[in-house]
## 1
Amino acid sequence: MVTSILHRATGIVLALGSLLVAAALLALASGPEAWGKVVALATSWYGLVVLVGWTWCLAYHWLNGIRHLLQDAGLGYSIERFVANSWISVIGSFVLTAAVWFVVYARGGIA
Amino acid sequence: MSQFDRFRQPIKNARGLGSAKDGVHHFIVQRVTAVALLFLSIYLIVFVVGLIGADYASARAAVAQPCNAVLLIAFLIASIWHGELGLQVIIEDYVHTPWLALTSRLVIKFVCVLVALASILAVVRIALGA
């Protein structure tokens, strides 16, 4: 129940995120000044909050999406399996987010 | 259910058309784009993390690489298409006022098409050095 609502909520966030992806690509195409603004936004504290939040939404939607595809194939429907693998989506999304940002900071951080 | 089966023509099942008149096309496309995005989103994360610390010229050069440009456009098409289908389902489930559901679906569809076209054009411009 909660995992399903979260799947939709993160999906909406990711759809809004594609507006930001499009904006970043348009800025990169239009020139160094516009790109500089994107970099300034992405490296500000609120930009960081958005990027970490976006990473978590993608990680959750990705893991829970695999779960939904397996459920489409008729797998994992017994109640205990269903509850157990929903925890994989929830806990795994935090693990994946931490892993991505560990690599980001290992590469010198975004600032 | 089974007592109604004899009233259904077999052609009905063969076409797979329900009351929506377009069968399982929506369902299939949502799953196909989902599988594509399992791979393309890993690629996107690796690509973007790889750009950390890059200046404008090298970021542009990375996007202009043909392999990256193709995968980025594939990601844009798959993700925006998947998003449009997902938002449509959410509206169908939660918006019960017909004119509002229709209007919001149209707005979402138009915005998605414009965002897809604009972002693909941006990648193409970068790839072609325009």
## 2
Amino acid sequence: MILFIAGTAALVVAMLLVLARLYLGPDLYDRVLALNSFGTLTVLLLGYIGFLTERPDFLDIALLYALINFVGTIAVLKFFRYRALGRGLGSQDGPEA
Amino acid sequence: MDMSLLDLACNIATGIAFATGSFFLLVGAFGIVRLPDFWSRLHAAGVIDTAGAEIILIGMMFQTGWDIATLKLILIAFLLFITSPTATHAVSNAAFVAGLRPQDLKKDETEQTLSDVPTAAIPYRSMLPESEPAAPSKSSSGEGSA
């Protein structure tokens, strides 16, 4: 148990540092990068919580969060490049279609 | 006797994995805060995503025994191993296409090479606005092949 508490402490420190970059980041891409790292750290925090409370159901939430994190990063990048999410990536129509 | 020895070995392995993983996490987070520009912060983010997270997940696997939780941890580790470098690559590709360059760049050699990049590397460049530094002849030829 002491192993998980120590790991959680280090993880929370890392999350706070990444949050500082998320707040300070001078550019959009710095923020997206920090957000992606913060999502990875959140997956690890969910795993730690599952072990600390001895409820392995938290691993399901961690698995789902890993999926959502990846899709969310790609969605944010696509939105800020094309200013729209609905257009299919394989469309040949150009930006005005 | 034998089982307690196995538990001790698993605890030691978990401790080593958590120590190294937390070290990588802290190094990556510190690098994300302290490194000077975006292209160097990418390296620190890569350290967090692959080294830190994977080693910590392997350390958690030693604590579950053979269980359904081990399978879930393996799935999470596999998923992070695939998606995190992909997301980092997508962020860096978007920043590169948007025109972000390293801080102390003396001479931007990518102004010529960006128009020579095959359209497979920047697949939707023909959809970008005209202000992008893309060669119009290349993008028109790329539309036919894509």
## 3
Amino acid sequence: MNALSEEVKQLIIDTLDLEDIEPADIDYEDALFVDGLGLDSIDALELGVAIKKAYDVKIDNNSEDSKKHFYSVKTLCEFIAANRG
Amino acid sequence: MKFPYQTSQFLQQQVSFAQWQQQVALYRDFFISQPQQRWLIFFEDSYQFTCYFFALIAANKQVILPPNGQPLQIVQCMEHADIFLGELSGLNNTDTSSDYLTFNLSQLEDDIKQPVDLTNNPLSFDKHCQLVFFTSGSSGQAKAIEKTFEQLIIEVEQLELTFAKLLDTKQSNSSVPVVMATVSHQHIYGLLFKVLWPIWSGRDLYLKTFAYPEHLVHEIKQHPKTNIWLISSPAYYHRLLADNVLVEVKEQLQALFSSGGPLNSEAAIAIKDSLLKSPIEVFGSTETGGIAWRQRATAQDDVWHVFSGITCKSSHDEQCLAILSPYVDASTWYQTQDRVELIDKQRFKLLGRADRIVKIEEKRCSLDEIGLRLGEHPWVEQAFVLVIDAQGHRRTLAAVVELTTTGKEVFAASSKFTFDKQLKAHLKQYFEAIVVPRKFRYLDCLPYNSQGKLNKKQLETLFD
């Protein structure tokens, strides 16, 4: 899980062109959107595409579930681990 | 048109108006004999400039004013002119003068021998005589703006009407004020306020360029008991905040004028506290001339008073100011890109530039508004927000920020990441995440040029 979380953090930084931030700055359990890292809805879209491509996972049709999966690095890693192809 | 007053003194040169007119008339008679019609004129020295400028107008030549004397700027402006009249300062490692026709000034010096008979051949000016100014377009290419001599004089007469009474009643000893300036006469603000207005209204001029406020103070002290009108710009006033040397001569400073760009409200009030009066700010552009003015009583006082003679309206959708102005065209509405809230026919508040409204992922936002909100944060002195179109990434906003002392202390003690994050959190109180700047750069001061403008291209490179 540790290696995956580092990978996901790096993916977030690269995909969203985040500046002055190291993987270590992203909290494992903190919210990625709104509060926490403060990403916006366009970031969510871009991150969704990047995660799909990188791990061959399918994003749920259910928006509530997706919200939960994309809540934090932790939830993202769990989602990827459970669904990767 | 003729000079309405015949009393000005050129104090620095110790030249009377009569002597000055002789000089102008001599040049005029020579210029009339020259075949060229369109004259590009550039002088560092304001006194020399006034002589040649009025001589060209009296000779009914088209007068073209480059914004500065940089060699390539002159080459560009020469596309609009037949001949160059002037002196370029020594830094000509790129000598481009062979590319165009330059007037040989020594021809004139030799000619000044006998006085011109001004009784039979007085100085008069065709009101339709044309002038061309250049404004640095945001695209980088200078844009030519045409005016008639009459339009400038109408504006000067309006300045007299608006300010003479206001300023003269404030002072019980009614000695005629002397006009001093820190701005260049090559730009419309300087040409109007420092040259045309005093000459046309018979006020004394002290034509010298003051690079530092210390020089200005020194000269003012040489003329004790004389009231001074200072024609200056935000670039100059903002720098007084750290060390206001003008305090020494504050009793003599009867009026302070500021134009060319926005003056911080904090600066205006700090100057009011230290120099006993806040600057009279004039709002306008090269295209429009002056539109409105204000003299802040408090930092919250943000109402502009429209010059009488100008009619205003604002469009319903974008609230953009349109004016009917005799300085532009008294019969056609001129549409500005300045968004305003009209209070009544003669007063408005500025809301920012319309061309600073952009769409980020379909979200409309005003870059100026975001910048102003950032400026409200205790860490932020001022901020400028711009759009970044990074290759391979979405269009986002970025902010160039000048920090306050507190801001600098906090910045030194924290990581840039957490610092940025807190400024973003501040903005999120007002704006959706999409329009909150994602990238921040911190500079000691925003790089305003001497005309009070920011070079957007230069700021963009901070994010490359």
## 4
Amino acid sequence: MKPQAPFHTPVPRRDAIRVGFCAALGLGIPDILRFEAQAATIAPGAFTEGKAKSVIHLHLPGGMSHQESWDPKPEAPGEYRGALGVVKTKGGEVFSENFVKLAKVADKINVIRSIVGKIPDHQLATYQVFTAYTPTTVLDYPQMGAVVSHLFGGRNGLPPYVVIPRLSGYEGGTGFLSSKYGAFQLNADPGANGVFKIRDFSIPNGVSLEQFERRKTARDIVEQHMRHLEADPDKLNTMDEFNKSAYSLLTSEKSRKAFSLDGETDATRELYGKGLKLKNGQPAAIAERLLLARRLVEAGVRFVTVSYGSWDAHTAIKDISNDQMPALDQAIAGLVTDLDQRGMLDSTLVMVTTEFGRTPKINAGNGRDHWARCYSMLLAGGGTTRGQIYGASDSTAAEPARDAVPVEDYLATAYRQLGIDSTQKLMAMGARPVEIGGGGKVVTSLLS
Amino acid sequence: MFYRPAFLALAFALPLLQAATPAATNAPLKPKTPAIPEVPSFRRDVMPVFFRSGCNQGTCHGSARGKDGFMLSLFGYDPKGDYYRITQEYVGRRVNVAAPDDSLILLKAQGKVPHTGGRLFTKDSVYYQILLKWIEAGAPDDEGTVPVPVEITLSPDHMVFKAPTPAQKLKPTQQMKVTARYSDGTMRDVTDFALFSVNNPATATINKTGLLTPGGKGDGFVFARFSRFTIGSEIIVLPPNDTTYRWTNPPANNEFDRIVYDRLQKLRLLPSQLCDDETFLRRATLDLAGTLPSVAEYRAFMADNAPNKREKLVDRLIASDGFTDVWTDLWSEMLRVKGGGYAPTGTDVKAAAAYHDWIRNQIAHNRPLNEFVADQIKGTGSNLTDGPANLYTMLVHSTKFTPKAFASDFSQVFLGLRIQCAECHNHPFDRWTQDDYYGWVSFFNGLKRKQGAEPREFYIYNDPSAEPAKHLVDNRPMPATVLGGEAPVAKGVDPREALADWLTSPKNDLFTHNLANRIWAQYMGRGLVEPVDDMRISNPPANKALLDALAAHLASNGFNLRALVKEICMSRVYQLSAKPNGTNADDTRQSSRAQLRRLRADVLLDAIVKATDGDRTFNLFPKGIKAIEHYPRTTGDTNGNTFTDPFFQTFGRSDRSTVSASDTRLEPTLSQTLHFIAGDTLQDQITKGKVVPNLLAAKISPAEIVEELYIRVLSRKPDADEGKAMLALAKQAPADRKTYEDIFWSLIDSTEFLFNH
């Protein structure tokens, strides 16, 4: 393993307060003190981008069984093993039998089989996966996407943080950060039946472009009056920014195209598993969601969160797995292949998370219950290694056998690839420095 | 304190200004090296070393699971357990009586063996010497024999500095001093064992030893913590060159103005001008009645020449239904009123309606706020018919009543306190101990629900035979005791009676301050303490005298909400313009000018509907309900995401999933902007309402149409530039419905509309 490149850190505080340094910058004492106060925390602009320029984060809500996916135990007794068979991966490991396509791209991805969560509760555990913290009533922590949005801002007139199709409410939000860093939730599903249309995302019906422009001109006239008041220029500027973004999204063909699947070839769509259906006849939709995520990232969105499925298999785990996994298998494998072919894999970090795994033993209902002590996640691209199975669970997939990776460490590693040192602190509630990553440490063995 | 020229002239002559406290008028205080007793006491001497060195912090060994195999109680709440872990868990290892210098705690603290926490102190430090002497003496325990700290003081207790100029060679500093009084009456300088922090590092910084260095102008606090106490001293830093500052003697309408002015003078701020009548009309109508003034109200108010027309307006608005709607909404949001269709939680739509109607009725009749709260605390009976009993269903939204969780939410709503920290350890930043916490929880330990006549119905009652809560550390039963109380409340009756008496008493500052702060926040856009539900010693008010006066007004006027609101709105500071002068552009906390405040989601939606003569209906509610009268209703479980209208979610109305004030989001977002520009709300309401067709049919001039639209939406006439520009726009296109609807639209989409100012 190569030595880890040092983080780009803000100007070291000790250096900053040396008199010569300050004199050179012409800083007065109040500036120095302000500087010192800020030096305890991180502000936008403190970090430069890392190897990963963007993130595609796929979350599988409900708690996907690790035994029925990344970490099968074919040698274990039947009540632990479950009903599914296995498939050999390119690297000679085994995945569960539904992950045929993923087995073929196992040389491009990393699977971590020793993730350690904290609480086997959907809400608390989901919050942790998104924020690196378990919720407290005292302080609400921001989602990783919001932190990235805060620290790096948008690119190409696009919102920095997008969610396809929507969050459940368990994930937390912008926490102590301003809500302007919150996810732009599409609230629409590119894989659903019918026409894909994002709410409030096109010039309203019956309003001509000419009218649309006239409204904008009229609005500018009204805004001037408020400017004369000279109160809170920051608020007016924020509103201005949002208006520019909104107009750019609504009128820029390029931006709007990023939020559609227009122009993708059938071959590409099929690579992701276009049109695969669930048993109930509904579209699985994961193919289109991940394809849209790729397009957004390609256009400049920094952080795209996608959700798929319903994995809380307290009963009939075999059926639930067999129903939802083939589409998942094809879509993730398709995404990884597509990114690689386009030369985007090394600059796009792919995270596949779930809030916890499931109990080692099959229960009376042929299901498995919540299990946070050891489960699996995927991490690929964005300057991570390729083809690693990192960590291992014990013989019944109950506890980490080696190289345990707490959820915070997984996130710290992801932050690291984006160029963010998650041990640095953000300012909460005006005066309270809070570490970005909840104490997580980078798993250096996963860095290429 | 009033302006005292003589004092200030003297003070300005000194590089370091200290306020006139006897303790602070002499030379800077130097920390003294404390004498080390022959046999240091574990509790009195050794525990403070762990505290000061950070060993028992949450990020180190104070974490619930310890760190690297060694656990200490967080900030030392459990000395007995700590003694055991240090001396007994691995005998001879952490503390080695045979070879004291080889004790692991000493080696680790010096960084001589690998230590995640690094090197904490050296051999020649007083900390090392205390630990060493204690170990040399055999590491004795001292349970039950040692006086405990009962109070700490921090001096100076307030400070005024002049900001240093960059050229200034001698930087002013101030050594802080912490003194502890012990249960045996002895006093001790514990500066070396206290932890220091500041809440506004731009104004002053402090180092580990308690040496304070002022920075840029502003105000803030320095805090010291020792044992279970936190205490703060105020710091004011004046601008370096404020020779031009002159108080302009603005008129004061009442006591609140005088207190704010006093504070402004101390901080060298000047209040902005009085706002104009148009602004006042809009501001007061939105704040007091949750709606916009109508065009007719606008014209009447502007035409009125009476000198007391603002007072007449305030009186009218306070007496309006809108006022009742606003406060019903605010309370039902705090109390998490939501109705569902899942019977076992006791939060059926019918229960929610009973509670909501009861709240509305109390506000409509201006029921004294103490009685309003007391009724809920004592709430007993059916959730479907006895409104206030739903305090015990709505704060919970669960099939299970958990006294601890309830006690936390209850304190946050009615006292603005977050006491839950004290469940696991003494509150690190406030005065509450675990004893306080468990005694407090016991008030609710007997609360029961009994199934009523139908599945939706539950009887709420207190079971007097219930056992009190047990202390986490030693399992002691902790009978119901009010916060800070010396003894438990009398046994045998419903303890909630005693709780209500204590809590709602005019003498209970926790209660009066919480109410006063929340009421002030509604009219000024932020509480004197922010967040409003996080009152603690280490989060002091921006103007303590003002909070005291607001609270005193409540206490001495029978907790009369409308009387206090009138007094606030008649103050000059409520009526100031948002336009800054040369001194107050950065001020957001001292009420020297009005702040731009985004309208709450429900008020905003009602304002849009009112401006457009539109209508908006809500799922599961009858037609004609306003957004502010709406509370979440669902056919399912109420314990989850219950935004029932996407507008509320987009604009940050609280979905009432917690009692936290921060669930109401007032920040703008991209989705909000998109919704205004391209969403259905504005488009629908504008076309539904027929405002523009009616104006066109009235055969008035284009200028009059534009003026009418401005008054409708922004409660003002267009200025000369706007009038011209809008007419030019109207002329470019045929003056048809669409053109005026575009102008109408642009007015509603403006920042001016979105904010109260």
